[in-house]
Amino acid sequence: MIELKNVTKVFEGKPAVVNVSTTFLEGRTNLIIGRSGSGKTVLLKCILGLHDVDSGQVLYDGRNLTDMKSEERKLLRRELGMVFQGGALFDSLTVEQNVRFPLDMFTTMSAREKLDRVNFCLEHVNITDANRLFPSEISGGMQKRVAIARAIALNPKYLFCDEPNSGLDPETATLIDELIQTLTREFQMTTIINTHDMNSVIEIGESVLFLHNGEKCWEGSKHTILNSGNPILEDFIFANKLYAQMKKAQDRPSS
Amino acid sequence: MNILFHIGRYFWLLRKIFARPEKHKMYVRQLFYEIEALGIDSIGIVVMISLFIGGILTIQLAYNLVNPLYPTYLIGLGTRDTLILEFSSTMLGLIMAGKIGSNITSEIGSMKVTEQIDSLEIMGVNSASYLILPKIIAVVFIFPFLVVLSIFFGLLGGLLVGPAVGVVSVNEYLDGIRYLFVPYYVTFSLIKSLFFGFLVSSVPAYFGYFVQGGALEVGKASTRAVVNTNILILLFDLILTRMLLT
To answer: Alpha-carbon distance A136 to A231, whole Å?
Structure first.
């Protein structure tokens, strides 16, 4: 379980994340949503330890990340998988080498076992016959799926995704959302996704944290978000005309 | 203050680079790749430049040694000492700062702006050590070989061009390059090459590792890396020459 206690991060006097406390549900898909510049990515990087928090605690099963020494952090990071916005695949390595990289680095598996694991992960993200291709030779959607395969290669306890379906067409974006949710259930991971895509929220948001100007503004799930009664959240959701029309239809008295 | 900040951060990065590797096998694999990418692939340009410079030096020395009292074999001697003492280590360092240095900055800088470095860190890999240490070892290891290669092909350039344009005979040139040979000059040149190899790999890596922004900033960082590496090479050339030759 990941727990945040009063996490605050300030950049050059400007607060990016202010006093955020929450608990991310174990074995579920947890979403952090908010407008661009609301502090989502900073909060995610604080949880990952890529940014040191100015105050507060980030607890992984009760272990405080902010108090950990470098070696302890390294060990913790082997429990984490991360899918970056652009995929962040290594350009100089093939698809197979990218997925194999964490196995090469941190396991003593034989070459055969590694290949089996790579193929297992690639099959789980529906990629076949692309082992020898380089990231530049595959589509954006495939790059995201390879990034997911690499992230699950070491069977992580926690999966983090930074805007996993940005830049993708709606169909591929939905596929990626479904894939993440399926993998979360199958591998019993705690998944934290950073997004501003309302389709993802409605699709896979088992737990949703809404940030506004770096502060926690609302917390709930996909079942309660459309009727939150929070004016700031409603402004965010119903900026999308489709959702505004849905809301209007829902509120219209039935004749 | 700015320069102190950069010096401090450079040494902080060096400390991170020379930390204990996670898995030696991966680093060794990377080292062989870097020796090929940064060293072996540079042999062509080193040979080409050295051949031309050797030939040009021979012609220029012949042009300056017009006094009939000067023996012609001095042309070979002058070419040899210029190549060993300065060209094959310092000039090669400056040229390699452009070729290898900009390559290192743009490679690491691109990895930084596309979050590949963050990706390594999240996995628990010491990104600075994994990416930079093999480059430093590869360049420091290969640089003395490139210097020896440069001396050889520089002398060969003089041997080909001098007699061809009629400023010195083959025998006089060969006499000249053997006359009053001081082996310590080669040692001096090789010592310098170790320092320059370290600068050519570590300084551009520093500029790449801390780049922020996008492709434009990576380009600017490459330029800054080459300029700063060149200045540091000349500074160290001055210091080492003062320490080791006088």
So the answer is: 43
